[in-house]
Structures
1.
Amino acid sequence: MEPTTITSTRLKQITDNFKKGLESSIGIYLFKGLRIQVSKYKASGSERFARLYHKRRENGLCVICGAKVKEKNPRTKKLYRLCSDHRDKIDRKS
């Protein structure tokens, strides 16, 4: 994933969240040419994958490839969790 460019005020917010122990501070940031990575030490693979899954769902991206999901479920009115390609391959198996 690409780092997010942040300003000094955003960096202060991230450090405040970090001090409080909030998971919203986790991420990769770019501040004045410096790459800052905030992550959990010795996080299991399933923990990292769950965080990536939830982040992609919140942003309306396919949980597998990260492509933008354009179609909504007509019943729930929410975006599908998979792009049309992966829905064809996974959800609609023959």
2.
Amino acid sequence: MRLPSPALRGTVLSRFRRQVPGRRLLPYLAATALVSMAAHAGGNNNIPQPRAWSVPPGKATLLATYYEIVDANCRPLKAPAVRILSRPALGTLTVSSDVGLADNPSRCANIKVPVTQVYYQAGMQPGQDTFSWEVHFQSRNLGTQRIQGAVAVTPGAR
């Protein structure tokens, strides 16, 4: 490859230097924007995350709240979709949409965001109950999470 003349070389190299960092930063900034999206219960995995709760018979309990917010400008995104994979035997699992307040990142605290919530309504029979659900985030970094849950339905639980 033939280099340009010394008079042109400075122009070509300065143009190249100006363009390359921008080209290198563009994917980085896009990735940063995706990484900086915060979600309650973050992590990108198809490996189920086990969680456990204790619930009194006949009571409803909020198990999880999910939302996404762009960290850079505190802009809320659509609430993540939740799909129940396996249903409990001793109670019922319910998914609802609502509006809640962001708590993460801290500078975006108390901003209203669309949320998806997962509730467990315990039956009257005591025992162990298991179930699972899947959360679909818009962020590719968060992706889809699978959650496995277990509830101990016991009298005297809070």
3.
Amino acid sequence: MFKNLFDLSVKRSGLNAFGFYIVYVLLGGLFCGLFCGALAVVYCTLNQTVCSANGAEVGLHIGKTFGVFCAGLFTLAFGIALLTMKKLWKSVPAVLLFLASLPASLVFGCIVSMILLAIITTFGDKIDMKDNEEPRQET
């Protein structure tokens, strides 16, 4: 279920795609959290009077504003990398799923957009990986 998580060119089974989804949602949440935290520190360093008076409200505003931006950025970068590594830019269903993941990331965040990208990992015929075997080249 968690084999070859960082090899984006692997064709995954349904169970492997689910493991891929779990790991990358957690990584996306970690990335977005660290990015938004860094932005909050920079914003509050530059605007100390606003942050000292309304600390919690400013933090929530920064989280809402930049969290959505960061989820979209993560989905965009990850989707481009996925389609490039799997060489699926000519596959209409894969490109449509990628394009659908972008507005999904802006509305629902990484939780929904990564479902669409995990489906893309089941496409392709370059490498086939079953649940209990090592990756192999298809003939």
